[in-house]
Amino acid sequence: xxxxxxxxxxxxxxxxxxNATKLDWAATWRNWMRNAGRPALPPxxxxxxxxxxxxxxxxxRGAALASRRxxxxxxxxxxxxxxxxxxxxxxxxxxxxxxxxMMTLPAEARLSTLSREITALTERLAPAGExxxxxxxxxxxxxxxxMPPGIEPKKILAVYHYALAGVPGCGLAAATQKLIxxxxxxxxxxxxxxxxxxxxxxxxxxxxxxxxxxxLARKRETxxxxxxxxxxxxxxxxARVRARLEAFRETHAAAKAASxxxxxxxxxxxxHAA
Length: 274
What we know:
With 274 residues, the protein is mostly helical.
């Protein structure tokens, strides 16, 4: 361990630039020791290939076969409104169904689809944890943004984690991306090139999550309307819903307890002070 400590000290002493600034040196040391115990993997050999040839057939013969194959490749099938264009699939477009498409499905299928979409939205609206807050700050620092003045360097992560408690993770991710791109240039509370102060970042993240919250409310209203049209769910369906809800509450409570037990001392000081 003494040798690894000397390597760690010499490496970070010689390191320069913003990558040499760390919010938690204890966590950096633990990662260093984890990586020190892993055996180094040799690089995989890469086979050299002449451009324009086919694998396993060298020289002019391989180039001629590859050229012939390109010329004889069959065209993509033409579809109505998409003739001559490659077929594309977009996972985001297939995540949710339109209302007209959903109404053509049977009642049970509609409820099942809505339940899956509600579950996905609920997971995305889950509060941002300490690890996600750290990733957000690290991404903005990597983009060249500086920390706001007035916060002690040792308490930066704890202060931001306290301010962002209960803020949806999807909102924090969207706000971080827009801050890096400079989309808040018209906002008087945001200074370009500087990470917003904790209350400002929390307000931006909540605003970014409003549209997803509204979409979740609409889907829940649709489920309630379908239930009223169908005369309510069966007892078996209600039992399944209650079981899933109870499992979700237990998982959420366990994760919350683990997060509180694993919080940093600075975070606990702020909670006590509040």
